[in-house]
C-alpha cells in the first residue's frame, strides 16, 4: 500500500531480487503478499472488522442496496463504477490510504489529486465533512458529478 511518498516497502525490497530468489522473497514477505483471488473481499472484511462495523450498516450509510453490496464485497458481482467502491469506503470510515488500497485491490484507478473531482473526494476522506449526501452536495456545489450509486446518476 502506498504511503503517498512513492514506493512501498515491498516495492523497495523487490528491486534487488533476482529470478532465482523469488521463492525466498515470497516466503520472507508472506505477511505482505496478498492472495489475489479474494484480496478485495478479505481486505474489506478485515477493515470492517477492525472498525467494528457491520456490512448492513455500511451499505445503508453508502445508500447501496444491501444485497448488491454483499455481492460486491464477496466478489460475486463486479462493478465498473468506481463511485460505488468510494461510497462503501466512505460509509465505512476508511482513511484515504485504506480507500486507495481498496481501489487498487478492486483493480480500479486510485484517486489522483491532479483531477479536480478526485482532489475534492480526497479532501472529503481526510476532513469527513458529513455523510455521502454532504459529500455529494460539495461535489455539486463545485460543479462536479456527485458520487453515483449502483448505476444511477442521481
What does this protein look like?
- This protein has 154 residues and is mainly α.
- The protein has a domain at 36-141: 434 Repressor (Amino-terminal Domain) (Orthogonal Bundle).
- It has helices at 9-14, 22-28, 39-50, 55-62, 66-73, 82-91, 96-105, 116-127, 132-141.
- Helix 4 packs across helix 6 and helix 6 runs antiparallel to helix 7.
- The longest helix has 12 residues, at 39-50.
- It is globular, with a radius of gyration of 17 Å.
Specify the biggest β-sheet: none
Question: What is the tally of beta strands?
Answer: 0
Q: Give unreliable regions as ranges.
A: 1-6
State the distance separating the first and last CA atoms: 32 Å
How confident overall, as mean pLDDT?
88
Output the CATH topology of one domain. 434 Repressor (Amino-terminal Domain)
Q: Which of globular, elongated, flat, extended, rod-shaped describes the shape?
A: globular
SS content category: mainly alpha
What helical percentage do the residues reach?
40-55%
Features:
single chain, 154 residues, mainly alpha, 434 Repressor (Amino-terminal Domain), 9 helices, globular
Q: What is this structure, in a nutshell?
A:
The protein has 154 residues and is an all-alpha fold. The chain has helices at residues 9-14, 22-28, 39-50, 55-62, 66-73, 82-91, 96-105, 116-127, 132-141. The protein has a domain at 36-141: 434 Repressor (Amino-terminal Domain).
